[in-house]
Amino acid sequence: METRKVYLDNSATASVAEEVLSAMLPYFRESMGNPNSLHSWGRDARRAVDEARESVSALIGASPNEIVFTGGGSVSDNLAIKGAVWSAKEEKKHIITSAVEHHAVLDTFKWLGKRGCDVTFLPVDEYGMTSPESLASAIRSDTLLASVMYANNEVGTINPIAKLGGICREKGVLFHTDAVQAAGHIPIDVKELPVDMMTMSAHKMYGPKGIGALYIRKGIKLTPLVHGGGQEFGLYSGTENVPSIVGMGAAARIALKLHEAGEARRVAELRDMLLDGITARIPDSFVTGHRTERLPYHASVCVKRVEGEGMLLRMDFAGIGVSSGSACTSGSLEPSHVLLAMGLDHATAHGSVRLTLSIDTVRDDIEYVLEKFPPIVETLRKMSPYKG
């Protein structure tokens, strides 16, 4: 089989779709106006921002005035969590999250914990899932907020968000979910879900980097992170990044079309082919995360007696792009906090590989990976000091 280029790191970032790029380009030059200016260039830019807001809101069943554009998923997480805490009554100082959150959430909770908040980190099961029972038992009379991710970025497990949010709604606790990995890939309707705030990011769903959005249910009050000109309903000041906002709107429209076309089923079949092939062809390998309650494009495995970095580099030499965990912390020598929280030992956790598919992934790509990956592992095991 010939050498080919196979990109399977779409959870880190996906390519910008052609339609998205085409929609963005005019707003760098021809329609370059500031959307807060009153002349025709400014009005054109304002219309573009408003249309994008409508498209993003339609993706999740929200109203346009419930969507705030931000600088990305991490900014949205920080705005939701800090903004809620800073707006709360003094007696509401208890906040809850899970042990496997993205660091944009996890580190924000730790930061707030050093500044007067009482923080509870919920355990997860062997799949990385947060149970409704653990959340319910953690809620107290002074609990303000709970934040549990919609789907895990490292192992792809989808949480029971409706149940988790329902518990918070029943007990009068704000509920935020980081849906960066889920939004645009699985259907989400906030009219049906008891979610108060939800984070989204464009570059995970074929849009540009550096732009995200926060859904804020009508009536929720937040203190802004950035003060200035009062853009984005006063919650994220600064001149709007019009090309990227337009790009996120276009990406949202594409995502809706993909939902209608059943793209998730096609990608999930390739994902299962990949997972089944790896575990069948590589001894002492196993799937991490839930086998069925997982994102359709997300495959993750652990390979015993091999380090993830070695597999990543050898796969790269073979033209295959994968990750050994979260791209945000891939430079760290520490094993994944997600896998450790799921009960894996350090040595096994170091052998993690994440392979995430996209709309561009085809069967030949999966066959190529299944041809190249097993001999890479065999070679590395012969060189490895791990013999257990």
Strand content: 5-15%
Number of domains: 2
Number of helices: 12
The appropriate CATH architecture of the largest domain is 3-Layer(aba) Sandwich
Any key phrases for this structure?
alpha/beta, Aspartate Aminotransferase, domain 1, three-stranded antiparallel β-sheet
Write up what this structure looks like:
With 388 residues, the chain is of the alpha/beta class. It has 2 domains: 6-15 and 262-383, Aspartate Aminotransferase, domain 1 (Alpha-Beta Complex), CATH 3.90.1150.10; 18-259, Type I PLP-dependent aspartate aminotransferase-like (Major domain) (Aspartate Aminotransferase, domain 2). It has helices at residues 18-24, 40-60, 73-87, 103-113, 132-138, 161-171, 242-261, 263-281, 308-317, 337-341, 346-349, 363-383; strands spanning 6-7, 67-70, 94-98, 118-122, 143-147, 174-178, 197-201, 212-216, 285-287, 298-303, 320-321, 352-356. The strands form 3 sheets. A 7-stranded mixed beta sheet has the order 2-8-7-6-5-3-4, sandwiched between helices. Strands 9-10-12 form a 3-stranded antiparallel beta sheet. α2 packs parallel to α7, α3 (73-87) runs parallel beside α4 (103-113) and α8 (263-281) packs parallel to α12. The two termini are 33 Å apart.
Concise description?
The protein has 388 residues and is α/β, with parallel strands linked by helices.
Outline the fold blueprint.
Elements: E1 6-7, H1 18-24, H2 40-60, E2 67-70, H3 73-87, E3 94-98, H4 103-113, E4 118-122, H5 132-138, E5 143-147, H6 161-171, E6 174-178, E7 197-201, E8 212-216, H7 242-261, H8 263-281, E9 285-287, E10 298-303, H9 308-317, E11 320-321, H10 337-341, H11 346-349, E12 352-356, H12 363-383
Parallel strand pairs: 1-11, 3-4, 3-5, 5-6, 6-7
Antiparallel strand pairs: 2-8, 7-8, 9-10, 10-12
Helix pairs in contact: 1-7, 2-7, 3-4, 8-12, 9-12
